[in-house]
Automatic annotation (TrEMBL):
Source species, domain of life: Bacteria
InterPro entries: MFS, MFS_trans_sf
Entry keyword set: Cell membrane, Membrane, Transmembrane, Transmembrane helix
Location(s), subcellular: Cell membrane
Topology relative to the membrane: Multi-pass membrane protein
Keyword Coiled coil attached: no
Chief localization: membrane
Protein name as it appears in the record: MFS transporter
Stored Pfam families: MFS_1
């Protein structure tokens, strides 16, 4: 794959955006330790970035189907890159300025997601997309694994404001590196182009043509809003209160990333006979994470459960992205992809906000039990939809 210059450019641009997206919260956390930001300020800034992301995703989906996907990536990267230094300028001076700049960065982040998904389908031939998607998710997982230590090391050499500006440089790379695609939007009257909601609704109708997509998106959203949120809140508490060490927290998170890395490498080559069912089984594996926290088991079981969860999530993600790029009408791919990011990413903060009060009200054990059941049951229910078997509405026509 990496011998192809267009793919290499696409991979580098997508990796730069993923690294910039991940790094900013970590760097701002360092700013809290340095007292450039308070914990409350950090919450406000990250909430503003999330709000910008959620606003931009559906708008970008429409724009990326109206115009060149490459142009949308360009403007998204430039918007995020130029707003990032303003975050650095506002730190310790104005929470309003910092939060506003973070919201603009979130807009750039949200705008590039559906455009990148659609651009992948333009640049990469269909028979190589699963391998390409695996390579891109592999880069994200490697970043998650090595970037905390690298960022901590860089913080000893440069002030936090410089590190924040460094994420802006990554966004500029996102804007400038990716290749041109082949998509040419069909011409339409200028008046028709102003009906944003009509075009967005067209994307909804396209999504409804693919029952497997709606079922899979529902399952993914349920898993993220419950299992992902619960384990994010409970794992630190269990590590501290049950095992009296932070090693279980660190081990669980590291195992999850290593499992995801293994999953990405494996799915790059594996072609299961029933791809949709295999992917949904992988998604259901996330249920082992809250289940392992429910009982006083040896820490090794917790770490193993997180590794299985990470493995499973990539066995779902890569075929899911590949099937969406294959099955959805090219002129509506960005809008359908925007629904994916809007629901799956958008409900993660909502889940985190609700899980903590639920644990306070009912206790950790009932909440974890419910989340584990949802993680197992939601993919199983999605698998009952006939087209979920292969992530395909109609079976492919066999050549004679």
């Amino acid at each position: 794959m990496f011998r192809s210059l267009p793919f290499l450019r696409l991979w580098l641009g997508n990796t730069a955006s993923g690294l910039a997206t991940w790094a900013l919260p970590f760097i701002l956390g360092l700013a809290v330790l340095e007292r450039s930001l308070s914990a409350v300020d950090l919450g406000i800034v990250l909430a503003a970035r999330t709000a910008g992301f959620l606003v931009a995703v559906p708008v970008a989906g429409v724009l990326a189907d109206r115009h060149s996907r490459r142009r949308v990536v360009l403007w998204a990267g430039l918007i995020a890159g130029l707003a990032t230094p303003v975050i650095a300028a506002g730190m310790g001076r104005s929470v309003l300025l910092t939060a506003t700049a973070a919201a603009v960065v979130g807009i750039g982040q949200g705008a590039c997601r559906p455009a990148f998904q659609a651009l992948t389908a333009e640049v990469i031939a269909e028979d190589r997309r699963q391998q390409a998607n695996a390579a891109m998710t592999l880069a994200v997982r490697v970043t998650t694994l090595v970037a905390p230590g690298l960022t901590a090391l860089l913080s000893q050499l440069a002030p936090t404001t410089v590190l924040v500006i460094g994420t802006g440089v990554l966004w500029l790379g996102t804007a400038l590196i990716p290749p041109r695609g082949t998509f040419a939007p069909a011409p339409a009257p200028a008046v028709a182009r102003t009906h944003f909601f009509r075009e967005f609704t067209d994307g909804l109708r396209e999504a409804r043509r693919h029952p497997w997509f709606l079922a899979g998106l529902g399952a993914l959203t349920a898993v993220i809003a419950t299992g992902y949120s619960a384990t994010g809140v409970v794992l630190p508490l269990v590590s501290r209160d049950r095992y009296d060490t932070e090693a279980v927290l660190a081990g669980g998170l590291t195992a999850y990333t290593l499992g995801a890395l293994a999953g990405a490498v494996f799915i790059a080559r594996w072609r299961p006979k029933r791809q949709g069912w295999a992917a949904l089984i992988g998604l259901g594996c996330y249920g082992f994470a809250p289940l392992s926290l429910l009982f006083p088991v040896h820490p090794a079981f917790v770490i193993a459960a997180y590794a299985v969860a990470g493995l499973g999530i990539e066995l779902f993600n890569v075929p899911w992205f590949t099937a969406t790029q294959r099955e959805v009408e090219p002129g509506k791919l960005a809008r359908v992809s925007s629904l994916d990011f809007l629901f799956s990413y958008g409900l993660a903060p909502a889940g985190l906000a609700l899980i903590a009060p639920a644990i306070d009200g009912f206790g950790a054990a009932p909440v974890l039990a419910v989340c584990a059941v949802v993680c197992f049951a939601a993919p199983a229910a999605a698998a009952l939809v006939p087209s979920s078997r292969d992530f395909r509405v109609t079976a492919p026509i066999k050549s004679v």
